[in-house]
Amino acid sequence: MDYVLITANRNYSSWSLRPWVLMKALGIAFEDRVEPFTKPSNYEEFRAFSPTGQVPVLLDQALTVWDSLGIVLYLAERHPGVWPDDEAARAFAMCAIAEMHGGFSALRNDCTMNVGVRVEPRPMRPALHRDIARIRELFEEALDKFGGPWLAGPRFTALDAFFAPVAFRIRTYGLDVGRGHAWVERVLAHPAMLQWETEALAETWREESHEAELAAAGRIVADYRKA
Ligand SMILES: N[C@@H](CCC(=O)N[C@@H](CS)C(=O)NCC(=O)O)C(=O)O
Predict the structure, then answer these.
(1) Is any ligand 1 atom within 6 A of the Cβ of residue 11?
(2) Could you tell me the distance, in angstroms and rounded to a whole number, from the CA of residue 165 to the centre of ligand 1?
(3) What per-residue confidence (pLDDT) applies to 1?
(4) Mutate-to-test residue for ligand 1 from 18, 54, 112, highest number of ligand atoms within 8 A of CB
(5) Which end of the chain has less Cβ packing within 10 Å, N or C?
(6) Residue 75 has pLDDT above 80, yes or no
(7) Per-residue pLDDT at 140
(8) What pLDDT, on the 0 to 100 scale, is given for residue 70?
(9) Helical pair 158-173 and 191-202, crossing angle rounded to 10 deg
(10) Atom of ligand 1 nearest to the CA of 67
(11) What is this structure's pTM?
């Protein structure tokens, strides 16, 4: 096996999930190396294998490929099926992935990914309402235009992978994405997502700063993680 994908805690690491779920869903084999967060900043330790001190990182023999978007673009040049076949769906996927990669900061900050818990969110600030409304609009437009059941049409593609962490956030915080829920339910039931979730629930390590972000996000109404 030539690829090694380095990711962090299943429960917290949203950026890690993107290439991981894509590679699993497309059947691209890789050695799965987990480097858990041990403190608020793991920069020094992660610099041993990652130029940014962050995960995910893909190692392809002597080559280091970093950043979730860089990894997906690299894989797209080597494996079929990363992008949708249909030209309009491909353009939509590229734009929505770019939008997700560079935006949605309120959603990212206020609703941090925490797979194993359910939260009644605090009253939301306008920026978060805008992010959720935009997610809903994107999902509904994608499903209407490309016919579902996946965001870009009949197959799971990079577009689904980039929004997969959002599906966990939607469930954790009970966010309303209208008709987009059809996709949320579908992606949460994907075998790769179920594997990620099972591994997240089995984790016994906790990282203080991620737990503090969760406490700030609202009232925890359920915690399914192993104690
Ligand atoms: N733009 C980067 C962001 C990666 C990122 O923020 N990764 C987080 C984990 S989800 C990280 O490694 N944080 C290091 C730390 O917490 O010390 C990407 O898309 O890969």
Answers:
(1) no
(2) 13
(3) 65
(4) 54
(5) C
(6) yes
(7) 98
(8) 98
(9) 50
(10) 20
(11) 0.97
